[in-house]
Write a structure and sequence with these properties.
Blueprint (H helix, E strand, L loop, with lengths): L1 H76 L5 H29 L5 E5 H12 L7 E7 L4 E5 H17 L5 E12 L3 E2 L4 E2 L2 E9 L29 H11 L3 E7 L3 E9 L1 H20 L1
Parallel strand pairs: 2-4
Antiparallel strand pairs: 1-3, 4-7, 5-6, 7-9, 8-9
Helix pairs in contact: 1-2, 3-4, 4-5
Length: 296
């Protein structure tokens, strides 16, 4: 009986191992499908937003032009004795100019230019971009950088520039009394599929880009919606497009993003971008699976 039971138990062991392997393959396939679905939904939402932004920007630009002309004519007709009215008209013109800047940003979203994907080193690109951004920081805000590790990624360098600039200017605006903005670049390895604040991380090597400030923080009630278009952390001073643009750029690079923020303590954005080798491996793996499925 024991002679019969030994091979039987061994066969059961092989069967359990095969089932476990199949379950793992299924789990990974489901995770890939979920990530692809999320990105598809996000892409459709952004396309709809682009069309809406284009129509809205065109209409607003036409109206703002007419208002600006009317305000200029009214201010020009006033004499020195109407100083208080002149000041009020000047304030109205300033408000119109802010509105015009908003329409310009809306038009930029509506254009949705094709991506120009290239291979670049995250630390090198970040260092180059920071050179130009430093001039936009007031003397009360200092910039600290730490390049602890890096690698090449695939992406649109222009969109990466926009992503980094938006986060740095947000950090600056969150510290009206000054402080330090910390920018870190490092490498990290992901062992298991896991969700992020926005997006998912798949197993493999990543480059992380962290932008951290010592500012006012983002209220917990606002954090779930802060990446939606036209949701601003700055109240009337903001356009609500900066973080929506950031998360769009991250998704285009097949990355993910984490947000950590505490009131009066500061905010930290951590962006995870798959290395170029990781991206190539994922693409080649998908092609191999498709070939295998076609052969079956």
């Amino acid at each position: 009986f024991s002679a019969f039971l030994g091979p039987f138990a061994l066969g059961i062991g092989f069967l359990v191992a095969a089932l476990e392997l199949e379950r793992e393959h299924t789990r990974r396939a489901v995770a890939r499908i979920q990530v692809s679905l999320d990105r598809s939904i996000e892409r459709e939402r952004l396309q709809s937003l682009g069309r809406l932004a284009g129509d809205l920007a065109h209409d607003l630009h036409r109206r703002f032009t007419a208002i600006t002309d009317a305000l200029w004519r009214a201010r020009s007709a006033l004499g020195p004795q109407h100083g208080h009215l002149t000041r009020e008209l000047s304030e109205a013109e300033d408000a119109v100019r802010r509105g015009t800047r908003l329409t310009t940003r809306l038009q930029a979203i509506a254009q949705m230019r094709p991506l120009r994907v290239e291979r670049f080193d995250v630390a090198e690109m970040t260092d180059q971009l920071l050179t130009g951004v430093r001039g936009a920081l007031p003397p009360s805000v200092s910039l600290y950088t730490a390049y602890m590790g890096s690698d090449h990624v695939f992406g649109d360098a222009g969109r990466f520039d926009q992503l980094l600039t938006n986060l740095l200017l947000n950090a600056r605006d969150a510290m009206p009394n000054g402080g330090t903005i910390t920018v870190r670049v490092d490498r990290a390895e992901v062992a298991d599929t896991r969700p992020a604040t926005r997006g998912h991380l798949m197993p493999g090597p990543y480059v992380t880009l962290t932008i951290e400030d010592e500012g006012t923080g983002i209220p917990a009630s606002m954090q779930p919606d802060v990446f939606e278009a036209f949701v601003s952390t700055k109240g009337e001073r903001g356009t609500g497009l900066g973080l929506a643009t950031v998360v769009s750029a991250v998704h285009e690079m097949h990355g993910a993003l984490y947000l950590d923020s505490e009131m009066e303590r500061g905010t930290r954005f951590t962006i995870w971008l798959p290395t170029a080798a990781h991206t190539l491996h994922a693409v080649s793996g998908g092609l191999e699976e498709d070939d295998s499925a076609a052969a079956l």
